[in-house]
Amino acid sequence: xxxxxxxxxxxxxxxxxxxxxxxxxxxxxxxxxxxxxxxxxxxxxxxxxxxxxxxxxxxxxxxxxxxxxxxxxxxxxxxxxxxxxxxxxxxxxxxxxxxxxxxxxxxxxxxxxxxxxxxxxxxxxxxxxxxxxxxx
Length: 136
Hints:
The protein is an all-alpha fold. It is 61% helix and 0% strand. The chain has one helix spanning 13-95. It is rod-shaped, with a radius of gyration of 59 Å.
C-alpha cells in the first residue's frame, strides 16, 4: 500500500491574511498605474490628433495664400499686357504720319565757296538780258 504525501503544515490565519493583504495592495497599485497609463495614452492620442488637425489647417491656409498670390500675379501680368497692347494700338496711328528723314540729324554739309573765274570777254560786249516791257 502506498502512503500519501504529507500536507505542509498550515500557516496561521494571521500570516495568510497578511499575505492576502500584501497581494491585494500590489494588485491595486498595478491597477492604478495601468489606469494612469491608459489616461496618459488617451491624452497623448488626443494631442496627436489635434496636432494633425492643426497641420492640415496650416497646409490648407498655405495653399490658399499661394493660390491668392498666384492669381494676384496673373492679374497684374494681364493688366500690364493690356496696357502694352493699348500702347501698341496707339503707335500705328502715329506711324501714319510721314517719316522724317534720318539725314536731318546729321550736321549740314558745307559747300565749297564758289570761286568766280575772271572772264576773258570784255565787259562791254556782254549784253544784259532783254527786259520785258509791260504795256500799261
